[in-house]
Specification:
Layout lengths: L9 E2 L12 E3 L1 E2 L2 E7 L2 E3 L3 H4 L10 E7 L2 E6 L12 E5 L9 H19 L11 E2 L6 E2 L6 E2 L4 E10 L2 E6 L9 E4 L6 H13 L3 E12 L4 E10 L14 E6 L12 H10 L10
Parallel strand pairs: 2-7, 12-16
Antiparallel strand pairs: 1-6, 3-4, 4-5, 4-8, 6-7, 9-10, 10-11, 12-13, 12-14, 13-17, 15-16
Bound molecules: zinc ion.
Length: about 280
């Protein structure tokens, strides 16, 4: 999955740090990221690349996290008037899905999640005064009313429902691939409550034997995906109930399409069912 970067290791602890020439920087504009293109390679720039064109770049840098010995910073260039040579350009953040080495792709989407949070919290949601960064933790603070906000992470469940040798697959748009049932946790719910509610709302089925599998941070949507397997309980008739899904169907294990990629927990769970390994998994 996209966060599986071993043997590399993410250190997301809060630090106040100034950049070195060898550190990397992210400059985002909406869903685009500044990259350096040389000989067909696309790379996240280092401070040593940018400093010749923008000597004050460090003054605009915010430390985000490190992976092994490499530090990553977010740079806000919106108020600076910088001109970079033609080898620099903006690319859609989807390049992070296939970026090599993979830990840089994971760094990229994680940095973009934090970028969105900083952008969304320029002003206090309670009194609308400009917010400032905390000096002791990753938080935005209001100096007027004392309101504090932390990076937003939304829990959601994803569930593979099986019945004998069949998996329930669903798609939520005409051009989408068939995938698994998923949905956000609502107030007052346990994860298991969300599993039962989402399944009933979307396809009108009941399930039993709900087993936790794994979780995945999915920075593209700021979601923490929590994966479960569950067995059908009773009637197998699919009823598309709330117009969220385009289609849903029971697919025999032999007809499940092969893995498209290894990025998401959904693809990993579908592959496990296709190989019939889900029945022997231990809870972990
Ligand atoms: Zn305030």
């Amino acid at each position: 999955m996209i966060q599986d970067i071993a043997p590399h290791q993410l250190d997301n602890s809060f630090k106040v740090q100034t950049p070195m020439y060898s550190d990397r920087l992210f400059i985002f504009r909406d869903k685009k990221v500044l990259v350096r293109k040389t000989d067909g390679d696309i790379a996240i720039p280092l401070f040593s690349n940018i400093t010749p064109y923008w000597p004050e770049v460090s003054d605009y840098a915010r430390y985000l996290f490190s992976i092994d010995e490499e530090n990553f910073f977010l740079v806000d260039e919106s108020k600076a008037n910088i001109v970079l040579p033609s080898e620099y350009g903006l690319e859609n953040i989807n390049i992070f899905r296939t970026m090599e080495p993979q830990h840089l792709g994971f760094a990229g989407i994680t940095a973009h999640q934090l970028y969105r949070w900083y952008e969304d919290n320029a002003f206090c949601g309670r009194c609308s005064h400009p917010m400032i960064d905390s000096t002791i933790e990753r938080a935005r603070c209001c100096p007027t009313c004392g309101y504090i906000t932390y990076p937003h992470i939304s829990p959601a469940i994803i569930v593979a429902i099986t019945d004998g040798e069949r998996l329930l697959m669903a798609k939520n748009g005409y051009y989408q691939h068939f995938a698994l049932i998923a949905g956000f946790v609502e107030f007052g719910e346990t994860f298991e409550d969300t599993v039962r509610r989402e399944i009933y709302e979307e396809v009108g089925l009941k399930v039993k034997n709900i087993r936790y599998y794994k979780s995945q941070p999915w920075a593209f949507s700021g979601t923490e995906m929590v994966g479960f397997f569950a067995d059908l309980d009773g009637d197998d008739t699919i009823t598309l109930r709330d117009n969220e899904l385009q289609d849903a169907k029971w697919v025999s294990y032999d007809e499940i399409p092969q893995n498209r990629d290894h990025l998401s927990i959904a693809q990993e769970m579908i592959e496990i069912v296709r190989q019939r390994k889900h029945t022997t998994l231990n809870n972990r």
